UniProtKB/TrEMBL annotation:
MaoC-like domain segment(s): 9-119
SUPFAM superfamilies, sorted: Thioesterase/thiol ester dehydrase-isomerase
Protein name in UniProt: MaoC like domain-containing protein
Superkingdom, natural source: Bacteria
GO cellular component terms given for this protein: fatty acid synthase complex
GO molecular function, one term: fatty acid synthase activity
GO BP annotations, alphabetical order: fatty acid biosynthetic process
Pfam family, one: MaoC_dehydratas
Amino acid sequence: MTTPQQVAKGDRLPESSVSITRTDLVRYAGASGDFNPIHHSESFAHEVGLPDVIAHGMLTMALATRLVTDWVGDPGRIVEHGVRFTRPVVVPDDGKGATVELSGKVADVAEDGTAKVNITAKCADQGVLGGAYAVVRL
């Protein structure tokens, strides 16, 4: 568990690497109810101009959020969160899927006992979330 005395501006969160496979997309679709064919049909994805099936944006956002909740130890400590979806996570049908690399850095520690964490999410060396951040209660 993270306490205010332990956190300083510039601190880095432990990095994380998460693989997303087509099976993960099926599981997420079932759990979320999001059965948009861009997440499971190659032909439909190509038809609408995508290079291949893509991961659900909310799944990518959840993975980024988990980086922070793992760090603070309690999802209830997130008081604010935001992201922009800048690039889709393309998930090839090769059994390996796509790997999302996640990192975070404390941008500010406030006197009210909160900290802002900037989050970076990359896939194939390209950012997939822009302006991703979380404000956490320490």
